[in-house]
Task: structure prediction
Amino acid sequence: MKSLAFWVFSLVVFSSLSAFWNPADSLILGGEVLSYSADYRDDGSVILAALVSEDGIESVKFLRTEDHGLNWELVHTHAMSVSLEVVRFVTGNGYHDFHFLLYTDGGSGLYLLRFSGDFSSSPEEIQIYGGQVLENSIELAKGWGPNFSLGCAWLTGTGQDDTLFFAFSEDYGGSWQLASWRFGGIPDVIKLVNPHLSLALDGADNFYLAFSGAHFFPVEDSFEIFIRVSEGGIGGSWSTIRVTNNTVPDIYPQIAVGSDTSERKIWVAFSHFESGNYDLYAAYSSGGYFDIDLLSAAQGFDEYPADLRSVEYAGQSYLNMVLLEDGEDHNRVEWSYCYGDQPTLWASPSLVADGSISLSDPLRPILSFAPGSPEAGALVFYCDTSGIHVDAPWFPEVEENDRRLGRRLFHIESFDGTLRVLSLYPGEYTFCLFDASGRAVGRWSFERELVVTPERAGIFMFRIEGGPDEYSGKVFIVR
Result:
């Protein structure tokens, strides 16, 4: 049995959620939202682009925050001349002053609107591709490199005739270089399972595109996660990486990559079908095989990754993930993260919101960051019938004078029914375990390491007492 492991961070799993989350879970845009996308700038501001419908007229509203999501300003509204389903948005950084909106009307091609930084003039419309485009497949990303770059990906066709397109620009979207591959011609992939794509670019402008594909017939028995990767940019060599190898479906991947050009660091989150439900798994590779572990499972819920992002802040790499629990009567949004120097150890997922939340693309929850703000961290956006909401998890502190602050953490590992708890800082601690109803299962004292074997498997809540704070979260014990 593969072990399940994660870290408990002192700023992540406080017993009091009010100390953990920004107290204002804000509705920032009401009305009928069709699609939305967000991105951040180096100065710490965050811009949200939302496609809305008002009295049958579609427009894109741009909202900006400069205080890590506490206050939002409507800075521009752009009326669209065509009917759309999906928009994707990225914004520039300090060395240029553009905003970029990607869209398609499905039939006539793929387009980029390039707005000036202050939205004072009409945007320039640039056609990237002419022809049929599957609307829910479009993806837009910016590169990690020293020179600003943009990459996008999309699908044409259906089923066996799907063709995967890539486009790359290094002149702020003015001109584009294209590449394409047809499914069935890509090694190991005979057919696309669904149009959901996830795109990332690294510091050398290499493409990483994650998708769920079939590698043999019958298709329904061979859903696997693949990554299409370039070496040497869009005009270099391409290869296909197979992440999973199972006899049950793996679907809905999300991908993130590190900014380091000397070492390839890839994170993938995906859903894996097991015992009647989809569970959430996280995979990591630094160039070789993928290390794959269960991140979250809940009986009676299907779990999916909604968004996965990496960010560099104060010399440290952070990975953030938004995940979904989809139940019969209600659903919920959760958030988790890990450090780049501990790339496989994710914090126990924490609740963002629950209720009637839109889970499917193009209204699934998304992430952004505010890396220049004093409270630098993630913003989690989600949509329901009232509009778009934002919540802000507390971000981990960073290194200062070679001393790592805010990272007193515990390593928790579950394997073959045994639970191991390890503190990186010796002390006097008490580990308390509770079942789903809140009933105490066990209570053990330890100083550095605890190894126990609870009587039964399942999902449990825990609390670690000792020192100035209490730490709590979920743990999944398997046999």
